[in-house]
Write a structure and sequence with these properties.
CATH architecture: 4-Layer Sandwich
Largest sheet: 6 strands, mixed
CATH superfamily: Metallo-dependent phosphatases
CATH topology: Purple Acid Phosphatase, chain A, domain 2
CATH class: Alpha Beta
Shape: globular
Distance between the termini: 47 Å
Structural class: alpha/beta
Number of domains: 1
Number of helices: 6
Helix content: 10-25%
Strand order of the largest sheet: 1-14-13-2-3-4
Number of strands: 16
Length: 321
């Protein structure tokens, strides 16, 4: 069935929330839309099902989508697995609209034994399966940037050879016409999180956060930072006067979250959004490893074993020499 955009019974709950805030910019079109997905955590059958259904709905939306943004945690610690990463890259390739993606902390791993080596090896695997660590897509309406900030937000994370996120971002923003709106997307929000009755910083590296926010503040055409990671909705404004941070929820089932994707609409300089929820299959349904419902569990098939090269399927970074 098609996603229902509008009022609906609470028992169906395909659309849970909508919000908006004023943006003061002139758009080339009176109205345009783009989509955000986040925290797909590829690797569990229920996550595959939710992701597959969301892609089907997004591809069937009755309006043009400027761009689809994936704000990280594409997989659950499995970026070096050909089966998991191959299935995830195939899912991304099946989205019809242009897309940009950035890695999350479960894609580029800085944990377990020998975290520095694991971080660099998973960063290499991520780029092999999903493309550059910083990507952008430009339309007549806006510029969409997805960028890895894991080296900035973590205190001890090593530099990734050949990748300086602040330099890349500064160059890309400097190359953008000042009148064109920009949406910068990353995984971990650059604002505080509230959980277990207290606030905690989203970024542990205060110096990295200050440098990141300084770049954003120098470019007033950056209208919002879009992020995931929290697995719930959030919104934050910043004392530096730079762009606000808008956080979308997730596809993953952790903490009893229901899967959702977000449709952003810009109308006459006002950004609004709607969260479209994905209904899970009936409790007695058997969901196969690739996210489809099968009548007989003996027919279950694993995700494809061979990864696909998506380098030509994602927008490449645009840098000014």
């Amino acid at each position: 069935m098609k996603p229902r955009i509008g009022r609906c019974p609470a028992t169906v709950a395909l659309l849970a929330a909508a919000a908006s805030f004023a943006l003061t910019f002139r758009a080339s079109a009176r109205q345009f839309r783009f989509v955000q997905i986040s925290d797909t955590h590829q690797g569990r059958a229920i996550h595959q099902y939710r992701y597959r259904e969301a892609i089907r709905q997004i591809n069937a939306l009755p309006f043009e989508v400027d761009c689809v943004i994936h704000t990280g945690d594409i997989v659950s610690n499995g970026v070096k697995s050909p089966d998991v990463a191959g299935a995830a890259s195939n899912f991304l390739a099946s989205i019809n609209a242009p897309k940009v993606v950035c890695p999350g902390n479960h894609d580029i791993l800085f944990q377990y034994s020998d975290p520095t080596n694991r971080f660099l090896r998973t960063a290499e695997a991520y780029q092999r399966h999903f493309g550059p660590l910083a990507q952008s897509h430009e339309t007549s309406n806006a510029v969409y940037i997805a960028i890895c900030t894991e080296t900035l937000r973590r205190n001890a994370a090593p530099e990734i050879p050949g990748f300086d996120p602040l330099d890349w971002l500064e160059r890309r923003l400097a190359a953008t016409p000042p009148e064109k709106p920009v949406f910068v997307c990353t995984h971990v929000p650059d604002c505080d999180d509230y959980s277990d009755g207290k606030f905690t910083p989203g970024w542990e590296n205060a110096d990295g956060l200050a440098a990141w926010r300084a770049v954003l503040a120098r470019h007033p055409n950056v209208k919002a930072v879009l992020a995931g990671h929290f697995h719930r909705n959030a919104y934050a404004e910043h004392a530096d006067g730079g762009p606000p941070t808008v956080v979308a929820s997730c596809f993953a089932s952790f903490w009893q979250r229901q899967a959702s994707y977000r449709i952003f609409t810009v109308t006459d300089g006002r950004l609004s959004w709607q969260d479209v929820y994905i209904l899970d299959p009936p409790p007695d349904a058997h969901v196969s490893g690739d996210g489809t419902i099968v009548a007989d569990s003996a027919l279950d098939v694993p995700p494809p074993a061979a990864p696909v090269d998506t380098a030509d399927l994602v927008s490449q970074p645009q840098q000014r020499e």
